[in-house]
Amino acid sequence: MKNSKLFLGIETSCDDTSMAILRESSHGPEILYHGKFGQEEILKKWGGVVPEIAARNHLAKIPTLLDDAFTSAKISPKQIDYIAVTTVPGLLGPLLTGVNTAKTLALFHKTPIVAVNHLYAHLEAIHLTEKVTYPYLGLLISGGHSIFFWVENAHSFNVLGSTIDDACGEAFDKGGKLLELGYPAGHLIDKLAQMGNADRYEFPIGLKSSADARLSFSGLKTALRNFIEAQPEILTKKPAQFETAEENSQDFYDLCASYQNAISKALLLKMRYAIKIAKEKFQAPNKFPIVLGGGVACNSKIRESFKNKYADALFVKPEFCTDNGAMIANYGRLHAQDATPFPQCLQIDARGRFIDKKDYQ
């Protein structure tokens, strides 16, 4: 691949509409534009993502983002060398919105298109800011997924273990709903927990006695619900504002800190088994990088805990942790050789099956 190739990344797998233009050069990836629209305020009253509403909002925001992208980067659509778009996994309506946008641009400008696995892109976003060699052990933690991967190279992702029920991001959001913090609640729990005692209350760690890399967070949510039902008065101690500590809210701060701590401890415990599996099953070397990505990788407690346990652990930069176009453009950069010149054949699969290159032929 020649230097200075330009990649357009389009991300619409859930509720974030995001686009990025990235230039590949001899110095590595350079982001020329990165824009995003979130739907948190719109979806707050529903307490979560409504696929139909999310898809309609993607459709409304895409023209503005496209115009802003090409204007800010000072390039024209026909100068784009590759279009990268999320095709798997995600919500069907939102995925279709992004894919149809990519197909239209690709057909009109005769631009090859790269189908992107959204999950892999989350971890590979580490290459936007860090020099990371393969193989590495990746932990993807987001609102919909919690998975340990052994990443042998840009084309080989092996699952070491994943959640058997809820993702840890879902545990944060649903826990926040129980705590009457609204949606999304992960960043609010993180902020409140910083003023609390993480050892005050004890919460269970799912599959604690299971010597594997599987995760489970449904029991943790149930434990929080039981705690609140037994002590409903604790909700009256929720602070009026979240910026500074309020004396009457200490019990609430401690509850948030203890709940968050249980999630962090579960991830740390299972990382130990993931490392063991990588060595036994994939002959992993004695020393290899550990990479954490996905929206929940922004959490301050998880970052601190992993840094204390694994000093060399690498985290995707926060602006690239949540769903974003830059990670999609970056994945397209790493997989330009897999681009198809026939975008009308591009398929999506909301369930998570990665569309193989042979499907385009």
Write up this protein.
The chain has 361 residues and is α/β, with parallel strands linked by helices. It is built from 10 helices and 10 strands. It has helices at residues 40-43, 51-73, 92-109, 118-124, 168-178, 186-193, 218-230, 250-282, 300-309, 325-334, and strands at 5-11, 17-25, 28-37, 82-88, 113-117, 136-141, 146-153, 156-162, 290-293, 314-315. Strands 3-2-1-4-5 form a 5-stranded mixed sheet, sandwiched between helices. The protein has a 5-stranded mixed sheet with strand order 8-7-6-9-10, with helices on both faces. A hairpin with a 2-residue loop joins β7 and β8 (156-162). α4 (118-124) crosses α10 (325-334) and α6 packs across α8 (250-282).
| Count of discrete alpha- or pi-helical segments spanning 4 or more residues | 10
Please tally the β strands and state the result: 10
Provide the residue-averaged pLDDT.
92
Biggest sheet details: 5 strands, mixed
Outline: globular
Oligomer: single chain
Structural class estimated from helices and strands: alpha/beta
Report the helical percentage: 25-40%
Strand content: 15-25%
Uncertain runs are: 353-361
Strand order of the largest sheet: 3-2-1-4-5
Distance between the termini: 22 Å
Order of helices and strands: EEEHHEHEHEEEHHHHEHEH
Instruction: Give the radius of gyration.
Output: 21 Å
